[in-house]
Amino acid sequence: MASSSLKSTPLSPSTPLASSKHLSQSQKSPLQSSSSEITSPHTPNATPSQNPTFTPARILTPDLCDILSNQIAPSDTDDPAFIPFLRCAQEQLAAYKSLLVQVQNDENAPALVQATHDSPQTNRHRKSLKQPKELVRITASSQEHVSRWREVNRRARNAYESLRCYYHLQHITDPQVRETTKVKVLRSDLKAFTELHKLGPQLVPYLQADKRIVGPIPGVEIGDIFFHRAELCLLGLHGPIQAGIGYAPGVFVEENEPIAASIVASGGYEDDRELEEDVLLYTGSGGKGRNDSHVSADQSLERGNLALERSMNYRIEVRVIRGMKLEPNSGRKLYVYDGLYRVVDCRRGNGQSGCLVYQFKLLRIQGQNQLGSKTIRIAIETKAKLAENIIPSGYVSPDISGGKEAIPVLLFNDVDKNNHPMYGPMMYEYLKSPEYPFSSKVSAMKGCQCRPTCSDKCPCKERNGGTFAYDNGILLHGRPIVYECGNGCHCAATCSNRVTQRGIRYQLEVFRSRDTHWGLRSLDPIQAGTFICEFSGDVVLRDMVKQGSEFQTVLIDPRKFPMRWHHWGNLSAVFPEWKPFESPVVEEQPEYFLDVSRRNNVACYISHSEYPNAFIQFVLYSHDDVKFPRMAVFAMENIPPLRDITLDYGCSTDLDEGDNSMEGE
After folding, report:
1. Which SMART domains does this UniProt record tie to the protein (predicted)?
2. Do 128 and 220 lie in a common domain?
């Protein structure tokens, strides 16, 4: 397998990569050598010359690719969940068109045709088909394609997180489920992965290639974080659930040799080392127990170890994921994608235990974004300094909330030197949560009588459609409105149905940005589905604005936010009978604006994005008037430390100037 056979191709779907053996026989480019992939999957490598009875239904031409692409073009009436797959199909047709042009220029190339259903070749059972012995690299031809792939991946991860919470909550609340599973502690993360993995390419299209994928995974960015290892497997970032080396077995490779595609470096072996920032010394697999870092037996050059050695020989890049402990004394790990490395050295020698171990030296490929693990370490070090009352360089204020928030809100500016106290966020009065002065229009919420925590018969649970909205602080699925327990409820302040009212739980910081002027990020990793913050400002009735008033025009309109909560927790891909939400439909629209020109809070500095990582969920707890819901910000995906938190603010209206945020103020 020569390294030249692993050329990147501009395909969004999976693209076969020919091996050196194939190339030496045909002397064609990787695209030409894999042209048989265009035929029906039931007729591998079949051509009219090889099969005299083969009758094509239609010759696949570049013009036909254009026609098919136009026919499947997404429209406004399509289901939003289906649009990414239509776009992926269009990208695949575009790739086929490009390939066909190359093949047509080759006089010796066989015709590419679509097989008929009555062909004897199509009657073969799928299980009898052999996987092509070719590695696969997936590339995106534009930033737009990257964003589309990322949206596909995010919906898969959303489904995983929602299903994991669903199984966990089902196990702890349903005695029949506990009796069926026969376990005290359910591995809901593995159960959710098992169910979603059955969908395979239906959920994530490129998973049809699975273990054969080398190089980057479309839609996965350097620095992306994962709270569960099963998520790595779900996206194809790393194959095995437990093993540290993911590789394509020899049956998938022309040379019948395993090729490593990824490793998880989490310090599982005592000989693991990080020599420099971009250099990793990774210990091979084998020779130790599952939960022991001590090697008690010699390692052999087989399976994953052999795959890494072969990757070094063929100069095939390896994806590196680092496992990092969230807390020093905690067994829970956070996984972060650090990008592509190459194995540059392989040695076998005595380890610290005296046994023979394989050690692989990996060098990070240049030109990639900063290490995700480095960013996390910077955030950890910053928090440690702040805990000791040491203000790191660039921080203007240790708390712009003035002690009003449970956790201080930092202000960071390393862009310009204007750090006057009356500059930027410091010039506004900080308001933790909105105040509703219209007592005649807003009624208090009737509380539950639960003690000390809410029971299955809690009226607040019934308001949410018969299920509680949260599981360990994670929103189970989006709803028109979430009803939390309020001041009138008798349950404790630690009740699981009190989440947003507790305030922020992450170390947030407003920061100066060259792109958005001001933005919001966190020093902590934010888990998908968790509460981040709430929008606050002076409440202004809509009819007062229509009639003209003295209020300034920096207004946030709750109606403008797209209903992205529809996507959070949508399990229709797993359970076809699943309904988007079971809580009562709310027909009334919010009847207010938030004027943030004089008083506001941390949420007002969240930047706008068409592909946001957070969404707005309406919440009620201090009153029950659906015309005045609180605008709570929840994470749409796992957000790494120091990454911008973004929202889709929707279209602008005649009632305000510019967008719906203060990022440009």
Report:
1. PreSET (SM00468), SET (SM00317), SRA (SM00466)
2. no
What are the backbone angles phi and psi of residue 355, rounded to the nearest 5°?
A: -85, 160
Residue that terminates a domain, selected from 132, 161, 188: 132
- Decide if 350 is inside a domain: yes
Q: How far apart are CA 375 and CA 345, in angstroms?
A: 27
The DSSP code sequence of 30-42 is HHHHTGGGGS-TT
Q: DSSP secondary-structure letter at 247? A: E
Same domain, 299 and 356: yes
Residue 380 is assigned to a structural domain of this protein:
no
Residues 481-498: tens digit of each pLDDT: 999 998 888 888 889 899
Q: What is the pLDDT of residues 361-400, one digit of tens each?
A: 999 999 999 999 999 999 999 999 999 999 898 898 899 9
What's the gap between Cα 111 and its chain centre? 41
In-domain check, residue 279: yes
3-state SS assignment for residue 518: strand
Q: Where are the beta strands (DSSP E) in 351-409?
A: 356-364, 395-397
The answer to whether position 446 is within a domain reads yes
> Residue 640: is its pLDDT beyond 70?
yes
By C-alpha distance, which of 215, 230, 101, 206 is closest to 152?
206
Structural domain including 424 reads 391-665
Same domain? For 648 and 618 the reply is yes
Q: What residues does 113 pair with on adjacent strands?
A: 59
User: What is the pLDDT, as a whole number, of residue 197?
Assistant: 77
Give the pLDDT confidence score for residue 632 in this predicted structure: 96
Residue 244 corresponds to which amino acid?
A: G
Give yes or no: residues 150 and 123 share one domain.
no
DSSP line for 334-350: EEEEEEEEEEEEEEEEE
Task: Indicate if the pLDDT at residue 62 is higher than 60.
Answer: yes
Instruction: Tell whether 182 and 153 lie within a shared domain.
Output: yes
At 240, which amino acid appears? P
**pLDDT score at 28:** 31
Query: Do 43 and 123 belong to one domain?
Result: yes
